[in-house]
Design a protein that fits this description.
two-stranded antiparallel sheet; 8 helices; about 65% helix; binds protoporphyrin IX containing FE
Length: about 220
């Protein structure tokens, strides 16, 4: 049997950003849960240390986000091409990919999307990552920055609707991010083996999936 062909999908800066970001977001979620529900969750020694860790993780995520932005925007210059779904993606691609995740994956059919360095995300990934990286992450960072600087940015806080609205917005955005994380990790295990898509995020190289041509309609 021929060895599987490999394709270089994830450049080093993207991998560094991704794992720093993942580590930071998980820390933010856990510490955030303790800050929000201190009576039920006490993972870190005290309330103050949870806040300190939360703010530090926020900083790590902000720095890694800048690395991601700089890499795609200035070095690779392919941010929009990689992350913005095409008309075709919106009209047919999302439906085709959803059918795969909801049905044909369980029948053993091949994934209809074959990643290449220029088009590495399937239409559902593009749409989800676009929303996460261009809307959710900036909004959650903005509300977080405001919450850590209420006094100096008082006028902006009032403009948004006050502290209560700001806290609620930050919490709801964090819930969305948490929901994304669970879905993202689940979908990341749907390769030929559970680690088939996760390893490339570590090594950069993904094995091409054999196109079995068994179901041309997929
Ligand atoms: C903690 C566990 C996580 C795991 C196991 C994981 C796994 C993966 C894997 C396997 C990929 C490459 C395949 C793909 O494109 O779907 C990927 C890409 C991606 N992940 Fe994650 N992820 C995690 C956390 C996160 C978090 C917290 C975020 C954002 C808030 C995130 C955002 C992204 C984005 C935007 C990409 C595309 C990166 C690019 O190539 O430009 N991931 N992730």
């Amino acid at each position: 049997m021929e060895p599987a062909r490999k394709v270089y999908l994830q450049p080093t800066p993207v991998r560094i950003w991704h794992w720093l970001n993942a580590f930071g977001i998980v820390t933010l979620i856990v510490t955030g849960a303790q800050i929000r529900f201190p009576e039920y969750i006490q993972l870190f020694s005290g309330y103050k240390s949870a806040i300190l860790l939360h703010n530090t993780a926020g900083l790590v995520v902000a720095v890694s986000f800048s690395l991601w932005f700089f890499y795609y925007g200035v070095v690779a210059r392919n941010m929009l091409k990689i992350y913005v779904p095409s008309k075709d993606d919106l009209r047919f691609g999302i439906g085709r990919q959803a059918k795969f995740y909801l049905l044909t994956y369980f029948l053993g059919w091949p994934n209809p999307h074959h990643p290449t360095p220029e088009n590495k995300f399937n239409p559902m990934q593009k749409s989800a990552y676009l929303a996460i990286m261009f809307v959710l992450m900036p909004l959650i960072a903005l509300t977080g920055i405001l919450l850590t600087n209420v006094s100096p940015l008082r006028e902006l806080v009032i403009l948004i609707g006050g502290l209560k609205i700001l806290v609620a917005a930050h919490f709801l955005l964090a819930c969305c991010l948490c929901a994304f994380l669970f879905t993202h990790v689940y979908l990341a295990t749907l390769g030929r083996t559970p680690l088939a898509y996760i390893k490339p995020m570590w090594t950069g190289w993904e094995e091409e999936e054999p196109d079995r041509h068994s179901h041309p309609a997929a």
